[in-house]
Amino acid sequence: MAKFGFTTRKDSMIMLDKADLSLRRTLISEYPEYQLCINCGACSAVCTAAQLTSFNIREVKLNIDRGQTVSLKNEIAKCMICGKCEMICPKNVSNRKIVLLINKHLQEQHG
To answer: For residue 60, what are the CA distances in angstroms to 21, 47, 63?
Structure first.
């Protein structure tokens, strides 16, 4: 096998067929519009929490889609639920509703 000067780290690979996508399925069942998100980043651009903290709703949704939900509680706590993201979204996806559903799910799972 040819050596190109780099290697792939095993711990950075995401096995989607083995990932826990239960939160994603729950969000889609309770709010089908979740699937309409095109990850354009408009929500992140106007986000008040993103301007004051390291919060990025686009990254949160990407991690949910990948089944990476370990740090989700800390990230979601940064959201101010102001609703600016709803006003700018070209697909009318309510990130505010998504955050509330994630909070509800986390409460049910972890109390």
So the answer is: 14, 13, 5
